[in-house]
Amino acid sequence: MAATAQEDGVRSPAPGPRGCEHYDRACLLKAPCCDKLYTCRLCHDTHEDHQLDRFKVKEVQCINCEKLQHAQQTCEDCSTLFGEYYCSICHLFDKDKKHVLKMFPGRIVQYAWRTFIPPVSLLMSCHAGISYIERVMKKC
């Protein structure tokens, strides 16, 4: 499920640039296809001769304490928040939960309007196997 967090005991990472040009996040994804660490699947795909399937990501590494752990919204060792927005199905982490809507606003709104699904519902209904989510979030 998608989540947003500002829970007690959750520590925000130090201010400043983190992540990559695509996403502001405090973790690296461990690519199950090659066991390499990348900030996002787009960075992975740029540097490798194969594509990272974000639905198969199982582990992340905290950029603060470097602990490798199962994919989740906060670090189990240092409590760093990896992203304000996190989807446990497609493993999208981002500082700004509005980023997903900003990336392809026309496409999301237009597609949602045609199918009578509000954009927020698309984000909150990110379940593997629902084809409209795969098309809408293809470049996330």
From TrEMBL:
Could you identify this protein by its name?
Ring finger and CHY zinc finger domain containing 1, isoform CRA_d
Sorted keywords for this record are: Metal-binding, Zinc, Zinc-finger
Q: State whether keyword Zinc applies.
A: yes
One GO molecular-function annotation for this sequence? Answer: zinc ion binding
* A Pfam family annotated for this UniProt entry: zf-CHY
Q: In which organism is this protein found? A: Rattus norvegicus
PROSITE patterns attached to this UniProt entry: ZF_CHY
Parts forming coiled coils? none
> Gene name, please?
Rchy1
Annotated CHY-type domain residues:
13-80
- InterPro entries per UniProt: Znf_CHY, Znf_CHY_sf
